[in-house]
Structure formats: C-alpha cells, structure tokens
Design brief:
Elements lengths: L2 H11 L4 E2 L16 E3 L4 H13 L4 E4 L16 E4 L6 E5 L4 E5 L4 H9 L3 E2 L12 H7 L6 H4 L6 E7 L5 E5 L24 E8 L1 E2 L3 E9 L2 H12 L7 E6 H14 L20 E9 L1 H15 L5 E6 L3 H5 L12 E6 L5 H13 L4 E7 L4 E7 L8 H16 L3 E6 L2 H4 L10 H13 L15
Parallel strand pairs: 2-4, 3-4
Antiparallel strand pairs: 1-2, 5-6, 6-10, 7-11, 8-9, 8-10, 12-14, 12-15, 13-14, 13-17, 16-18, 16-19, 17-18
Helix pairs in contact: 1-2, 6-10, 10-11
C-alpha cells in the first residue's frame, strides 16, 4: 500500500486505529494478509475511508467480529480491512414501539444483554454471539435455532444506514414497524457479504422477553425415526421456537458440553435417565417459549407425539445449550477439516444427513451433522485426524455432498476448508439466472469492484 494512502488514513481515523505489519495476523484469511486494517469511529469516517480506498483502487473488506471471515472464494489480491468495532452503541431504543437502532459493530451478546435488562430481546441467535456483530450477522444473514419461529434477519430489519462503494451514505426504510412505502431496499444488503455496501447502522424489530423458555431433548435409535417425529410435530398444534436434529456425534458433544456446565442436566420430564445420545441414532431438540403453563403442556405433548416414533427419555436441557446448538456440528471436533452448509426441503434433511455420513465413512473420514430441521437448513462438519496429506478425499466428499443437495433441488455452500481444498471445490453453487441478476446489481452499485470483490456468489 502506498505510504501516502496510509498517512491519509491515519489522518482520517487516528494513527492508533490503523494497523499494519504483524498487527494484521488476526485478519489473515486464506493465506492472504491485508494491506492494513482501519477502524473508523463514525459514519463520516467510514465514508472517508471507503472514498480514500476507491481513489487508490484498493479493495475494502468490511469486518465485524470475523466469525464469517473464512466464508467465500479466496481473494484475488490483498485488501484494506475496514473494522467496525468502534461503532458499537445502542443508538436508540423505543420500548413502546418494540424497536431499536444499533450501530453495526455492537456484538449480538452485548445487545441482547442491554435489551433483556429492559424486558425485550432481538430474536436472532447466531453462533458465536460474543464475537458476532450486528453488521456481520446482517451481512452474512446468520441465524440460529430460533429462526424456526421468528425468522431470519430479513424478517427483523426495519431500516438501515449503508455506505456504498462511492462513499455515499444511503439510508433505507425507517424507524417504525409499519413502513411499506417504495422498494424494500434495506433487505438488498442482507446476506450480501459486504459486496454492495458497508452496513453502519440498523433499526430492528424487537420482542418482549417470554415468561418461560425451555429446551427438550429426545433420543431416537435412527435418524429417520427422529425425522418422522419432526413431521408429526410440525403437523400438530404445538408452536416450537426451535426444532433441531443432531446426529449422534453432534449430540454427544452438545450434551457433554452442557452437562459439564450444568451437572444437574440429568432429570427428565418423567424422571427417566438423562438424554444421553446413543452411539448411533439421533437427538431431537425442541424449544418452546411463552407462559409457563403453555410451555409445560407443550413439553409434555411433545413427548407424547414422539413416543410412537421411538422418541424416549424426554429431558430438559440447561439454558447453556442454546448458544451451543447454533454451532453443534462444528463443535463436535477440535478443529473441523471442512464445513459445508445446505438448504434443502425439510423432508430431505434426515436422508441427506445419513447419506452424507456414509459417503464420508467410505473414504475414512468422520462427520458431524446438525440441522434446523423445520426449515431444511443443515450444517455438516468433516474431520480427519491431523492435517490431510492430500486434499483429494476431502474435496471428493464435499463434491458428492453438493451433488446430493442439488439432486433434491437444494444447494450447498462451502463455509470453511483449507486453501488446497478450496482450489478443488467451488465455494458457491452456480445460481444461473439469479447469479447473473446479482452480477448486474453489483455492477450498478460497485462498478469498480471495491467492496469485498470476487468472494461472493457469481464472482461478485
């Protein structure tokens, strides 16, 4: 990077907020070290940094907590990391309207702590809430188990303030829930991975904190039996806020972790043994919230519905299980060799998990699977002892997994893998016409390709 640009960046945000050299090690992705990392402290400084980078034709990578930094095609060249950690305020909270305006660098955990202290909460529960920032969660469209009832970021966003590639400040939406005039431009930036603009501030819909909330786990001898119980649950009058299906590997890690934090895990609704998963089979974890009487009845009714399908040992899980659920597959191994995410029909979840595990076993690889079973979002971790000497077997498994998803009309994305594997496996599916539309939008909003270029779908 030119010394002149670095000096201008230091003048814009302060020397202490510009990192270079060895200080950049936390921001190395896929072996690529950025030119510098800059941390603006205001909306105006964000616009100034982007403007300076655009003048010098230096790519900009927006950075929240870094939890999704490994997602994407390897960057073609070094870039300027634009970190938002200094923009971490709750700007405005309107309890009567159930809305809040928040700066993008505030972590989800910090936001929830403030809101829950006031009797409200944001119904988003992504993994790594202690690190994940609001801007990063919106940009990655990240969510967790409670999406089953409460939806994703698209359902909660009311308004947004974004800095575009030409350093223009754009505000879309408003600060009230009933905002229906014109195009819903804020949602354009949801899940765009920072390729269309840098989210600096967002206004969101909130909910009152429920009086009671519980997680119930049931054991099944086979995944397909658990899937049958899921179908019965979804066809019933119950209103779960989470429906999670875990294979034996992911379930063992979840229960062991929660039991370690909460030794009293063992008692079940009926006084049976703890919900320890069998060496094969599955664990179905279902959440309910609302009035205590409602929650109590739904938990008991769930056990009754699951029993004909082989569900047994219905057991409450400690509240510590909630954040673990969002990353259940990844947490099953010390370090996953690769991670892949799938979107399939809910009816195909169990089959994908069983067949995918079989494909990996045939090549001597271990797997862990977890799914938001009611919406068809599946996560798989692939593991091999030590660093794989040859990326071929890992790439072959990932390729077969992708074809399995496509065969059922779904799609897959490679969330994490070593660079050697990424060189053999596409990170994103080919979206056809949808991808071409996205390329045209990118060309309109970022014609010079400044914002996180080449890392997202269709090379945008």
């Amino acid at each position: 990077m030119q010394d002149a640009l670095l000096e201008r960046l230091r003048t814009a945000v302060g020397s202490a907020n510009v990192l270079t050299g060895v200080e950049l090690s936390p921001y190395v992705v896929d072996g690529r070290t950025p030119e510098a990392a800059v941390f603006p402290g205001s909306l105006e400084e964000v616009a100034m940094v982007i403007g300076l980078a655009a003048e010098s034709d230096v790519p900009v990578v927006p950075w929240g907590g870094g939890t999704a930094a490994s997602v994407g095609t390897p960057a073609a060249r070094a870039a300027l990391v634009l970190g938002l950690r200094r923009l971490a305020r709750l700007v405005e909270h309107e309890p009567g309207d159930l809305t809040a305006t928040v700066e993008a660098g505030m972590t989800i955990a910090a936001l929830q702590a403030v809101l829950r202290g006031r009797g409200q909460w944001l119904s988003l529960d992504p993994a790594d809430a202690e690190r994940a920032t609001l801007g990063g969660v919106l940009s990655a469209d990240a969510s967790g188990p409670r999406r089953h009832l409460y939806g994703t970021a698209r359902d909660l966003l009311i308004g947004v303030t974004v800095v575009t590639a030409d350093a223009a400040v754009v505000k879309g939406g408003g600060k009230v829930v009933k905002n229906v005039a014109g195009y819903d431009l804020p949602k354009l930036f949801i899940g765009s991975y920072g390729t269309l603009g840098v989210i600096v501030e967002a206004t969101l819909k909130l909910r009152p904190v429920p009086e009671d909330e519980r997680l119930v786990a049931l054991r099944f001898a086979r995944l397909k039996d658990a899937a049958a119980a899921v179908r019965a649950l979804l066809a019933s009058d119950l209103i779960p806020n989470a429906v999670e299906l875990l294979d034996a590997t992911a379930a063992t890690a979840l229960v062991a972790g929660v039991a370690g934090d909460a030794p009293g895990l063992g008692k079940t609704l009926a006084g049976a043994p703890p919900a320890t998963p069998p060496p094969t089979g599955a664990l179905l974890v279902v959440g309910f919230d609302g009035l205590p009487e409602q929650v109590e009845w739904q938990c008991a009714e769930l056990a009754r519905l699951a029993a004909p399908h082989g569900g047994r040992d219905a057991a409450p899980l400690a509240s510590e299980a909630w954040p673990r659920l969002a990353a259940a597959a990844r947490a099953a191994f010390p370090v996953a060799t690769a991670m892949m995410a799938f979107d399939v029909l809910p009816t195909q979840v169990a089959e994908l998990m069983e067949q995918g595990a079989g494909v990996a076993r045939a090549r001597g690889l271990q797997t862990a699977w977890a799914a938001h079973a009611g919406v068809g979002a599946v996560s798989a971790a692939l593991f091999t002892d030590g660093e794989p000497r040859e990326p071929g077997p890992v790439a072959a498994v990932l390729g077969e997994w992708r074809e399995m998803a496509r065969a059922g009309g779904g799609h897959a994305a490679l969330e994490w893998a070593p660079l050697a594997v990424k060189s053999q496996v596409q990170v994103w599916d080919d979206l056809g016409a949808a991808g071409r539309i996205m390329q045209r939008i990118k060309a309109q909003l970022d014609p010079k390709g400044i914002l996180n270029p080449g890392r997202f779908v269709a090379g945008i």
